[in-house]
Design brief:
Number of helices: 14
Radius of gyration: 39 Å
Largest sheet: 6 strands, mixed
Distance between the termini: 128 Å
Oligomer: single chain
Strand content: 15-25%
Structural class: alpha+beta
Helix content: 40-55%
Strand order of the largest sheet: 1-5-6-7-8-9
Number of strands: 14
Length: 485
């Protein structure tokens, strides 16, 4: 999370003191174990795996049902399964090309995963060189929140002052040799070497300028509290894992039940053998010989009710529905599906507001870099849209658009905005107008050719009639001459 500090206390930001760096790193380290636990839960390293029992012979199964990964993966697919759309009435092709160069779609997926797991995400924008062409370009990478932080001033605007990225460097034996610390402010990058972090001094290795005109590290928040999507449900996840593990323990104990025997006496040494074979012996009169298994009653119905209740609470707290539920059958309409995903849609509306705020900061940094090559882009005119990745019945939407357009109750611009894959309605309307004009022009050309053909036929008929008339007049004259002669 961002660390706040008084601007005057920070001192010279171009030459930060060791005291400043140590103070900020210690602040960041205080939240390390929380982030570590969230990462472990996503990876399946959950508390049930640490359970021990006093009796080593008792069954101790450790079942992990990874709801944490399910919640995160569903949120990531729902949020950025459809790429983020950028539209503007101005020309923004330069910035879109820069995004394509760095594969921004894959980057956004990784960023949203960090947000869902940790509740916070960081991305670093830096200068990179293409190994094939040798050209320098603006690149972008996600940085693990456990090794980077942003520092802002303590005003209500929380203006970024600098960012620090630190990472251990290991030797061939796997031990930490030293730490590499990179410091980013609004004009340059300082690289330090340190024997430890949080105390001691920092040896400056190099200082290089950058051209982003701002701190090139952006902090994204998942929500106001900076909590992960499954963080509130960790206790429920633990309870579910414990219940499932104990169910298997009970089954194993039932199969491996102790056989209780009474009515006869064992020989010396048989007790140890029978104990290893799960047998017990008790003395009784000869006429009361008996053998039975010692088991406890298992009420599967009550266990199933408890399991379903825990499962329902997990999905309720995380707003992520259970897609294996019978309510999500294949014949459910798109509108019915939206109703069932209402909670997830509300969650997305909150998450997207915070994400768009960071995406706009990213646009500013890329625009600042592109200004070097005289590519001026109006960031304020760019619209950012996140579209939920939902199954959509396009046929129904098109039919509704056609009916509403024929009825004349809504403008075409509004109707076309209903289509999920339309980012720029004005551009679509312009294309439709161009197609209409081309169709009219082709019809006019076709009618013109037809008219010329018709006119040509009329001329041919007229010439033929004239020839026939001349021939008839000639024959009449010859007949008259013969009669006079």
């Amino acid at each position: 999370m961002a660390i706040k500090i008084n601007r005057e206390m920070a001192g010279d930001l171009n030459n930060p003191s060791s005291e400043l760096l140590n103070h900020c790193i210690n602040q960041h380290q205080s939240d390390f174990w929380r982030l570590e636990k969230l990462s472990d839960y996503y990876d399946g390293k959950q508390d049930i795996l640490k359970r021990t029992k006093d009796n080593s012979a008792a069954p101790n199964n450790k079942v992990v049902v990874n709801h944490a990964k399910y919640v995160t993966d569903m949120n990531v697919g729902f949020m950025v399964g459809n790429p983020v759309a950028y539209t503007s009435s101005d020309d923004i092709q330069a910035i879109l090309d820069a995004y394509t160069k760095v594969d921004i779609v894959s980057h956004d997926t990784e960023l949203e995963k960090d947000l869902s797991v940790f509740g916070i995400g960081y991305e670093l924008i830096y200068m990179n060189k293409d190994p094939l062409t040798g050209k320098v370009f603006a690149d972008i990478k996600c940085i693990d929140p456990r090794g980077i932080f942003l520092v802002t001033d303590d005003t209500i605007d929380a203006n970024p002052l600098f960012a620090v990225h630190y990472q251990p460097v290991y030797n061939l034996q796997g031990a930490v040799e030293y730490y590499l610390v990179k410091y980013y402010n609004d004009n340059r990058v300082l690289t330090y070497k340190a024997a430890s972090i949080g105390f001691g001094d920092y040896q400056l290795l190099k200082a290089v300028p950058h051209y982003f005109k701002a701190v090139p590290v952006i902090e994204y928040r998942n929500n106001e509290e900076r909590q992960g999507d499954f963080e509130q449900a960790i206790s429920l996840i633990d309870a579910y894992n414990l219940l499932q593990s104990d169910r298997i323990n009970d089954k194993e104990a039932f199969v491996d039940a102790i056989l209780f025997i009474r009515g006869f006496t064992l020989e010396a040494g048989d007790g140890a053998i029978l104990a290893s074979e799960k047998l017990l012996q008790a003395s009784a009169p000869p006429n009361e010989v008996d053998a039975s298994y010692l088991t406890k009653q298992m009420d599967e119905n009550s266990v199933a009710v408890l399991r379903d209740a825990l499962l329902e609470d997990i999905h309720k707290v995380t707003y992520v529905p259970n897609m294996n539920d019978k309510n999500f059958s294949g014949n459910v309409s798109g509108e019915a599906m939206k109703y069932k995903l209402f909670g997830l849609l509300q969650l997305m509306s909150v998450k997207s507001r915070y994400m768009i705020k960071g995406l706009r900061q990213r646009l500013v940094l890329f625009a600042n870099y592109l200004e070097i090559s005289n590519n001026s882009i109006d960031i304020d005119a760019i619209k950012i849209k996140l579209k939920p990745n939902l199954p959509i019945n396009t046929t129904d939407i098109v039919n509704q658009i056609v009916q509403a357009h024929q009825a004349g109750i809504l403008p075409l611009k509004v109707l076309l905005s209903w289509l999920p894959d339309i980012d720029n309605v004005d551009e679509v309307i312009e294309q439709l107008q161009e197609e209409k004009e081309e169709a009219i022009e082709m019809n006019q050309k076709a009618m013109g050719v037809q008219a010329e053909d018709s006119h040509s036929n009329l001329n041919d008929d007229e010439e033929e009639n004239q020839d026939n008339n001349k021939q008839s007049d000639s024959q009449t004259k010859q007949k008259g001459d013969q009669e006079n002669g």
